[in-house]
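Archive entry: two folds, one per protein. Generate the first.
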Amino acid sequence: MELTREAIWSHIVRMDRRKTTVLVMDLQSAEISEELQLKNPEYVDRIRRVVVPNVRPLLDIVRSNRVKVIYTIVESLTQDGPDHSVLHKMVNLHVPKGLMGRKGPDRR
């Protein structure tokens, strides 16, 4: 099978929705925050131009076929972040433990 977008979509549509779950990782607001936009505009631009437009049709297809979608929240296990991923270290993105659960516009 040639690995084209159409081949992938047609395979997804044939999946048994009772045995299939789509796991969405690293698509949270911290990935496109104003702070990260200022530090790494190319990274945020690529997420907005490439990643989101490619994930959106996938989610539309799986949802229309009633396939379960699970989202992850990526955060460090510590406040200072020595455990965050290599990619997040490269773009200087650190989501401290508990940040995603905090209330308010600045999440403090």
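Generate the second and append.
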Amino acid sequence: MKCTRFIVLSAAGMLFAGGAFAQLSQAPGARAQPVNAALMGTDAPAFVDIAKKHPGYLERSDVPKDDKTLAVLRSHFKEADANGDGHVDEQEYRAYMAKSR
């Protein structure tokens, strides 16, 4: 009787684990989205690579002068700052860089 219970519980555990594994392996695209999906197709650096001095936002002085892909952002910083707070957050950065492609 103990042997039968062990076999039944083992089989149930394997079915549960197999189902969970199947769900994980079926939808890799949903979780594999790149952080910079809005920047795909551009050479623009990731926001986190630029926003090191002020995590969460950029000031105009944070935008590197020698990066050609960011020259437009640097010269039109006020336009990229959609809410006019003097900073460009990640959402504003992505929106502006995607628009300026």
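Annotation attached to the second fold: Residues 2-26 form the longest helix (25 residues). The chain is about 50% helix and 5% strand.
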